[in-house]
Design brief:
heterodimer; A: 356 residues; mainly alpha; ABC transporter involved in vitamin B12 uptake, BtuC; two-stranded antiparallel ribbon; two-stranded antiparallel sheet; 4 strands; B: 501 residues; alpha/beta; Rossmann fold; six-stranded mixed sheet; 18 helices; 36% helix
């Protein structure tokens, strides 16, 4: 290995890239196991697309969470905000006071409001993000139950049309037992997911905001010394996360069609778990944004595997919890091993300690 | 011809809650000069620099940049006006690439042009001869390379003023030469360079002028060529040099037949020191000498059970005792001032008072708290005794200078009245004056009957203080020196030869 690389300046993989590749391999491994264990369902492309169709809101929440985690923070209000948005939009549509556009603006508005508030308190008043967003979570949950306690189906015709709308992929699908070709279907929510993934990935890689956020997450003190406006950067990350949670609420409603107090429950936990599985380090500054959807897919695959295996639901939670421990420990071990190895190899010859 | 003045700071004052960090300090920098800012730890050098770079806001005074009154509200402000800084602790982001670290926070654009950035970075790295690739993650560079990258960043900002705060502390001789060459180059281009260092030789090698600060006050500005080194040192310390050499070694009472205060046989710990025998008598100051990593610290940590003890027998005053945890050791009257002040010693957020009474409180048990009055009495007593410079008992210990933090930890142990105190590198990273004070104190304590073990990387310091040296090499005791044999030459020889005949 070393002989091959001699003479060429060797640029090692960054931690973000390494963890992203590992996350990708783990996902492929999990999906491979799933295909081998349950070929009937997992070999169908539709099963893969259904991950997105049914969980579009979770994917979106995870993206927002990913951004604040890269900045070295956390936002545990996202699930509750998502739930609140579904109920608020359902109420608006059912009362007849607003149309689909109105509901969309309401969703964005609620998300933005939470984001602005959290961002201000965390960035400018320098309060612990965990505490602030915990308060935000209680606030959003309280508002949600205050708005309406019963499940609320949305019957607004425009919205129902939007919700029923599906896109068929004519060249991809399966042939059923009767020999009829069934094309794969995707829902509009999936388009939102894809659009946001692309948008945020570009933002994190090519925008000043994105790079500043990595710097702040990596070392806040240094970032300030490098002339980055740390407070503004952190502020914006929470605004973006809140806004994203608002979008996820709207997409959630497009998926289930009803406001419900259980909507978005535990999404914050799932989003954190998905990010960890996607190679985003909770310590901040390390992780590829594309890891967020990959991690979500891993999480969903694992859940689906457990479900398909017919394990009781409480056992599912136990298995998921244990796996999460495993992932976090794995990350730390990789990082620790890496630093030790690099400590020996990365030393340029003119810096090697002189031995007498 | 008088060179043009580019920076003028006048009557700068800065206080932190209770501490006057700077009082009415003036500072002048001319174009194309290398100006050394000198002073002991806590003299106010860092504070002055932080005001100049917008990290702190001054309480009073004016800053003129090229004759214009300016006011820096943030590091970014200062950067934009052409003040580049390389801090002692490298202020770069380890998770970003080398190129990013050179350019981030500088462009106003909303997007990053990676290609262009990497190209400019490559050019810059090449011209300065820095062995790093622009796309490499900074964390994969060595500390010295990171330091050079920080300088490259500052230089590339077209700075008029470059501040180098202890840039050479992590560089070896060759690298220092390279850095000095770079400084000369910049000087020729008309950049004013402020250079802070502890290495007096380097100051005389490169600087044109010297400004000395002491206790937050300006002592004076001198041309380097006209200020003898001895005078510089005494100006920094504020005392005549005779004080330094006035330390007289104290000879321990003859104790060959008496029972040692502490005795260990075959002691070993999980960190891998070879089982060793060791004893210390009443009123003795001994030391562990050896190269860094020879097992000096590991040995004393084993005595204090700071690392897991894996074998051996320990006697206190001739009686066999079991010491398994630091608390056991404390209860036997052993105190240990750890090598790493920041991580093992001070508790940052606690006040000076609480830091001082900590060990005593632990020994009493948490259910029998010291009363506030008692605590204040104890703390005051030792603040006076050790001359700890603190504005009040309630000041958090992190705002004190390094030397004063060290004294606070020392006070913590003295308060428990240990019969045997281990000091592991008590003088590292603190200024000359405090060093001398601590050395004096060690000898005074020994004269009063305390037994001490003193470890230092500076061999002459150990020779001055210790009456017996245990020499270590490769985690093993290779010999002992005392009396007339105790010379620097012999210690070196023993380390080099490993004690073998």
């Amino acid at each position: 290995m070393r002989l091959l690389n001699r003479g060429k300046p060797r640029t090692r993989l960054s931690n973000s890239t390494l963890l992203f590749i590992i996350a990708g391999i783990i996902f492929l491994l999990m999906y491979g196991i799933a295909i081998v264990s349950f070929p009937v369902s997992f070999r169908q492309f539709q099963t893969f697309f259904d991950f997105f169709n049914l969980n579009a809101a979770l994917f979106i929440t995870t993206l927002g969470m990913c951004i604040v985690i890269i900045g070295g923070g956390i936002d545990i209000s996202v699930g509750a905000v998502c739930g609140l948005v579904t109920m608020a939009c359902a109420l608006l549509l059912q009362s007849g006071a607003g149309n689909v556009w109105g509901a969309l603006f309401l969703a964005l508005g609620i998300g933005l409001a939470f984001g602005l508030m959290h961002g201000f308190l965390i960035a400018y008043l320098e309060i612990q993000p965990f505490i602030i967003t915990l308060a935000g979570m209680f606030l959003a949950q309280g508002l949600l139950t205050t708005l309406h306690k019963e499940p609320l189906n949305v019957t607004n015709p425009d919205f129902v049309a939007l919700r029923r709308f599906t896109i068929e992929i004519p060249w991809l699908g399966t042939v059923n037992r009767l020999g009829v070709f069934i094309p794969c279907e995707i829902k509009p929510g999936v388009i939102v997911v894809v659009a946001l993934v692309v948008l945020y990935a570009v933002l994190m890689k090519w925008s000043s905001f994105g790079r500043n956020l990595y710097a702040v997450g990596g070392n806040r003190h240094s970032a300030r010394m490098l002339g980055i406006n740390v407070k503004k950067t952190i502020f914006l990350s929470y605004v973006l996360c809140g806004l994203t949670a608002g979008i996820s609420g709207f997409v959630f409603l497009m998926t289930t069609g009803a406001g419900n107090i259980g909507n978005g429950a535990l999404y914050e936990i799932k989003a954190i778990a998905a990010n960890v599985m996607g190679g985003i380090m909770l310590s901040g500054g390390v992780g590829n944004l594309l890891g967020a959807p990959i991690g979500t897919l891993t999480l969903l695959t694992i859940n689906e595997l457990i479900r398909a295996a017919g394990v009781q639901s409480n056992l599912q939670a136990i298995v998921a919890g244990l796996l999460l421990y495993l992932f976090i420990v794995l990350q730390s071990i990789i990082m620790a091993l890496r630093d030790r190895r690099e400590f020996r190899l990365a030393l340029p010859p003119w810096l090697k300690p002189h031995r007498s | 011809m008088q060179p043009e003045i580019i920076l003028k700071m006048e009557g700068i004052c800065k206080s932190f809650p209770g501490v006057k960090a700077l009082h009415n300090v003036d500072f002048v920098l001319r174009r194309g000069e290398i100006h050394a800012l000198m002073g002991e730890n806590g003299a106010g050098k860092s504070t002055l620099i932080k005001i100049l770079t917008g990290v702190y806001q001054k309480d009073a005074g004016q800053v003129y940049l090229e004759g214009r009154l300016v006011h820096f509200k943030s590091p970014q402000d200062a950067q934009n006006m052409g003040i580049g800084t390389v801090f002692q602790e490298i202020a770069l982001c380890p998770n970003l690439t080398v190129a990013e670290n050179m350019f981030i926070g500088r462009s106003r654009g909303a997007f990053v042009n990676w290609k262009q950035m990497n190209e400019s970075a490559a050019k810059m790295l090449n011209s300065l001869g820095i062995p790093a690739s622009p796309t490499q993650e900074l964390a994969s560079c060595s500390i010295a390379v990171q330091q050079m990258i920080a300088i490259a960043r500052a230089v590339d900002m077209d700075c008029k003023i470059l501040i180098l705060d202890e840039p050479t502390s992590s560089l070896d001789e060759d690298e220092t030469k390279k850095l000095f060459a770079l400084m000369h180059e910049l000087k020729a281009r008309g950049v004013g360079i402020i250079f802070i260092t502890h290495f007096i030789d380097q100051v005389y090698e490169i600087s044109d002028r010297i400004t000395v600060l002491r206790n937050g006050e300006l002592i004076g500005e001198y041309l380097t060529a006209e200020l003898p080194q001895i005078e510089l040192v005494s100006k920094m310390m504020g005392k005549a040099l005779s004080d330094v050499s006035a330390i007289k070694k104290h000879e321990p009472p003859k104790s060959d037949d008496s029972v040692p205060v502490f005795e260990a046989r075959g002691l070993s710990s999980a960190t891998g020191v070879r089982p060793f025998d060791f004893s210390v008598h009443k009123g003795e100051v001994n030391g562990f000498a050896g190269l860094l990593g020879s097992g000096r610290s590991e040995s004393v940590r084993a005595i204090f059970a700071a690392d897991k003890v894996t074998g051996g027998e320990v006697k206190i005053n001739g009686k066999v005792v079991k010491i398994r945890t630091p608390l056991d050791a404390m209860k036997q009257g052993i105190g240990y001032l750890p090598e790493d002040r920041k991580s093992d010693g001070i508790i940052d957020e606690l006040s000076v008072r609480d830091n001082i009474i900590l060990a005593l409180q632990v020994m009493k048990g948490f259910f029998r708290p010291l009363s506030r009055k008692q605590a204040e009495e104890f703390a005051n007593q030792y603040i006076q005794l050790l001359e700890i410079k603190t504005p009040s008992l309630d000041t958090s210990v992190k705002s004190l200078s390094g030397g004063n933090q060290q004294k606070a930890i020392l006070a913590r142990w003295l308060l428990t009245h240990p019969m045997y105190l281990i000091l592991d590198e008590p003088t590292r990273g603190i200024d000359v004056g405090t060093k001398v004070e601590i050395q004096k104190l060690v000898l005074k304590l020994a004269a009063e009957g305390m037994s001490l073990t003193f470890i230092s990387s500076e061999i002459d310091e150990m020779l001055r203080v210790c009456s017996r040296l245990i020499v270590m090499r490769d985690r093993e005791i290779v010999g002992e020196l005392s009396g007339v044999d105790l010379t620097e030459q012999n210690v070196m020889q023993m380390i080099a030869q490993g004690g073998g005949e």
